[in-house]
Q: What sequence folds into this?
C-alpha cells in the first residue's frame, strides 16, 4: 500500500505500517514518533514525514552468537520515511546522552507508545549530559550555518536548522535539562525579546514557501547566529564532564524488558 493509494489520514497510514513492521520483522514497537521539521513545528507544505521508532525482539534473538542487525529501514517513498532502532542500540546511545534519542523520547507527535517505554524513559532521563548535548547542538548549528546559509539568497528553512539548535543550547545553558522539541517552545522561553519579531516574520514567510524556494539573507539573524556560535563554543569548552558513566540502570531495564 503506497501513500498515494491510501484514502485515510497520514496518521492512520503510519499506524498501519507500524503494525506491518511488527508482523514482518517479528518485533515489538515500544515508541513511535514524528521527527524532523514536522515535530519541530516548521514543516514546509511539501515536507515528508519522518517516522522513527524504538523496538525490541524476542529474548532468544539477543542470546545468539552471530552479529545482529540493530536497526530497521522502512523507507516507502518521497512522502513517508519510517525507520527504527533496536532497544539495545537505543540504550547504548542514551548512555552517551545522544541528543537525537532525547528528541525522539520527547517528540510532541506520538504515533504509538507503551507502558514499557514509560518505564524506560524514567531511566534514560538520568543519562542526560548538558556538556555533550550542548556540544551536539552547537556543532549542528555551526555546520548548518556554514553549509546552508551562504550567498545572497538562501532557503529560509535552513535558518531554522541553525536557530533551533542554537536555542537548544540556550535552553541547556539556562535550564540544565533536555530542550523541548517544538521550536515555538524554545522561542517562547529562551529567544531574546528583540529577536522574536524577526523570527516570527521568518516563520510566517517560511511556511508559505516550498522546500526549494530561496529569498534574501536576513542580516540581523546572521549577526545573532554568529554571536551565539562564538558564545556556545566557549561555553562548551569550559563546562565540566557531567556524563553518567554507570551502566547498571540501563542493563537492568533492558533485562526487565526482555523478561516480559
A:
Amino acid at each position: 500500500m503506497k501513500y498515494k493509494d491510501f484514502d485515510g489520514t497520514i496518521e492512520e497510514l503510519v499506524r498501519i505500517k507500524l503494525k506491518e513492521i511488527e508482523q514482518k520483522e517479528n518485533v515489538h514497537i515500544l515508541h513511535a514518533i514524528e521527527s524532523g521539521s514536522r515535530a519541530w513545528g516548521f514543516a514546509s507544505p511539501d515536507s515528508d514525514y519522518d517516522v522513527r521508532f524504538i523496538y525490541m525482539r524476542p529474548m532468544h534473538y539477543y542470546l545468539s552468537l552471530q552479529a545482529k542487525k540493530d536497526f530497521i529501514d522502512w523507507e516507502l517513498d518521497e512522502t513517508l520515511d519510517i525507520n527504527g532502532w533496536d532497544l539495545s542500540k537505543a540504550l547504548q546511545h542514551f548512555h552517551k546522552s545522544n541528543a537525537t534519542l532525547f528528541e525522539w523520547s520527547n517528540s510532541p507527535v506520538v504515533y504509538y507508545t507503551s507502558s514499557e517505554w514509560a518505564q524506560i524513559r524514567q531511566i534514560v532521563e538520568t543519562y542526560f549530559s548538558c556538556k555533550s548535548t550542548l556540544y551536539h547542538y552547537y556543532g549542528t548549528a555551526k555546520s548548518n550555518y556554514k553549509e546552508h546559509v551562504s550567498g545572497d539568497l538562501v532557503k529560509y528553512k535552513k535558518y531554522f536548522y541553525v536557530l533551533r539548535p542554537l536555542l537548544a543550547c540556550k535552553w541547556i545553558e539556562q535550564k540544565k535539562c533536555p530542550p523541548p522539541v517544538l521550536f515555538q517552545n524554545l522561542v517562547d522561553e529562551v529567544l531574546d525579546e528583540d529577536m522574536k519579531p524577526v523570527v516570527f516574520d521568518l516563520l510566517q514567510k517560511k511556511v508559505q514557501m516550498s522546500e526549494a524556494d530561496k529569498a534574501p539573507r536576513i542580516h540581523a539573524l546572521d549577526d545573532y547566529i554568529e554571536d551565539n556560535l562564538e558564545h556556545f563554543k566557549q561555553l562548551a569548552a569550559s563546562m565540566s564532564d557531567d556524563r553518567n558513566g554507570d551502566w547498571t540502570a540501563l542493563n537492568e531495564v533492558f533485562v526487565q524488558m526482555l523478561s516480559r
